[in-house]
Design brief:
homodimer, mainly beta, Methylamine Dehydrogenase, Chain H, four-stranded antiparallel β-sheet, 34 strands
Chain lengths: ~400, ~400
């Protein structure tokens, strides 16, 4: 057998090398950010299990993820400027760069070839080749007399465009990357003070920035950019009651249900209801804390709301037809994020202080499973690959 | 080496058995029906290539496909009653049954566990375990004095429900499969004569059946089923001009763009525009043939329209904002189907009589690639797995 062993070893090594990547489909995969440890849990939503852990992603506070169009690779944007490409079939980091000192979010282009990162410090948007993570373009957030602005609210839009807002400059910009050698940046100035986050509607048509320094919100119709940015919900402002803001809400989570959008109010125990036909206010939901994420079940019939400290131990679920509260769930301390499965039958919840992932059936509103995770925060499922603006 | 060979052979066989399934992601895969040969082409949309051919699926005229929630398996519904489960990682048929003599379409439940098939002859809906294809339930389409109706317009809806229409009975039915041992079927009678196909809106709320035997369309609000079925577009009828109908349009292709739905008219060279806020008619597009599929680009900015014989050599593209025709494409004879890539940057077109698949860039409206396929008809991409009603 002595002569056989090296051959066997070689074959087995070959098998390992070839077979290291899992043979499995990727449509039901997801990643959970484990912020305290700089790690990820890879999950799957068909059997509701944790598949593996991935380590070494740096500072993952406020981290987010986007996915390659084949749903194999994830791009994780870390707070330390780290951009990490994860191979979900191999369950490991494929490539990692640190692209700046302080990043806040990212996006992937419509064609899947470009990954964009928005930065606080130095302010700007950097664009990378999705395959190699090599730098492709640098879009500085310069304004006024050579100043640099923090960039927030970066999203992808149809036509291989990225749209983002400049906190310090009060601007919205559209970067058209359809000709890579010649990116075209269009600027919209004086959109309002301190845009703090933004969303794009699921069809990619309307870009809406929340304003921290003024009343109302700034809306840009990307189908008709020549009309410029206009103010909507002028009667809504965070300043009139001078409430302390415990945590800035996330606008990416704005929920669309039919022709109604549900928007977390800043610093108030309210969710704004907006008529998306004319962007007028259509009412408010009174909730029991400052809302952080307001997420619509994919069919739009329910919105799920989590809250800033000290009310971050609960989730309120509202019926979008009756506008009544259906239930209040108490998953535990530190409910940070919720992610619906693609067709909405279940929702995953991260409960940071209890080191838990929890899954709820959205029809019965009952918890169906709990799994351990280390200080989980953001949950991202691969079907986002197929969505505009996610 | 004589003693080594059997070991090597065993190992290599093992490797083949293990390694036969492709290690690749499934988010960018798709299948094209090759109707004349009872086969499929497996395609991928990142590099725009044909990966393989799969044979032996029986009569695939009027065939359609749905996908498992992990995007690994496809379920193909053939006209001969065949239900074939295809493993896209292995590139082969995983299981095949012939479940009736004449089927017309199918759907997969929200939780991915059930596959439903609607049948012409004998009329009814049969429900199978998505894993094993074993029969789970039989929902006869009985009406009146023990008669059986053809079933059309079968779709999935949130809450593990299936919704379908009875051509002969003039009924819409909702089958709630959330308790498998006790399916609940709710009947809505007298909805209009000869419902011929139906659609469900992308949020899963409204089920709308086209009527062949009467004016208007039948609408059921699945959020408020107690309100019953009501007639919409009462001024639209196919009968008033007695035009011959060359091919029944497909309603599954109804396009939603913002609060406008674009609907192929039966027997007329028109596309109806419907206001989805109140389901009133909001106008018509004049087109150059009887429309078959009216498909919205995923961002809703364009609708692409193909036509019945003798105008099945062209595609008309309209701008949904200006309602103007942007272009008329001439792919060739027998343009049967169009499928947009998930975020809409490209669209695949099957051109039957030229044995071609063609891909168009939806921004430039130019053809970017052509590939051979044998009499291609339906094109189905895996991202449908994540959609309600597809």
């Amino acid at each position: 057998m002595t002569r056989i062993r090296p051959i066997l070893t070689a074959l087995l090594l070959g098998l390992t090398a070839v077979g290291h990547a899992e043979t499995r489909a990727t449509g039901d995969l997801g990643l959970v950010i484990e912020r305290a440890d700089g790690g990820l849990k890879m999950i799957e939503t068909s059997g509701n299990t944790v598949l593996s852990s991935i380590e070494g992603l740096g500072d993952l506070s406020h981290a987010s993820a986007v996915f390659s169009r084949d749903e194999r690779f994830a791009y994780i944007f870390g707070r330390d400027g780290g951009l990490t490409k994860v191979d979900m079939l191999q369950g490991k980091i494929a490539k990692r760069i640190v692209q700046s000192g302080n990043s806040i979010g990212g996006a992937i282009s419509q064609d899947g070839r470009l990954v964009a990162v928005s930065n606080y410090e130095p302010g700007g948007v950097r664009i990378f080749d999705a395959d190699t993570l090599e730098s492709v373009a640098d879009l500085p957030a310069d304004y006024g007399d050579g100043k640099l602005s923090k960039v927030v609210g970066l999203v992808d839009a149809p036509g291989n465009r990225f749209v983002y807002s400049l906190w310090d400059a009060g601007e919205i910009r559209i970067a058209d990357m359809s000709d890579l050698a010649n990116p075209k940046v269009r600027k919209f100035e004086n959109i309002g003070k301190q845009p703090y986050d933004a969303l794009i509607t699921p069809d990619g048509r309307y870009y809406i920035a929340g304003l921290f320094g003024e009343d109302g919100l700034a809306l840009l119709d990307l189908w008709q950019p020549d009309q410029g940015v206009r103010r909507i919900l002028p009667d809504y402002g965070r300043n009139d009651e001078k409430m302390p803001v415990y945590k800035m809400p996330h606008l990416e989570g704005w929920a669309m249900a039919g022709d109604r959008a549900f928007v977390p109010a800043v610093g108030r125990n309210q969710v704004l209801i907006v008529n998306s036909n004319d962007w007028s206010e259509a009412g408010r939901l009174e909730v029991s804390g400052q809302p952080v994420f307001v997420m619509a079940r994919p069919d739009g019939r329910q919105v799920w709301i989590n809250f800033a400290f000290p009310n971050n131990d609960r989730i309120e679920v509202f019926d979008t037809l009756t506008l009544e509260r259906i239930t209040t769930l108490h998953p535990g301390k530190g409910v940070l994020h919720m992610e619906f499965e693609p067709r909405g039958e279940e929702v995953w919840v991260s409960v940071r202080d209890d080191d838990q992932l929890q899954i709820y059936d959205t029809a019965t509103l009952k918890q169906v499973k709990t799994m351990p995770a280390r200080k989980p925060s953001g949950i991202f499922l691969t079907h986002r690959a197929h969505k505009i603006g996610l």
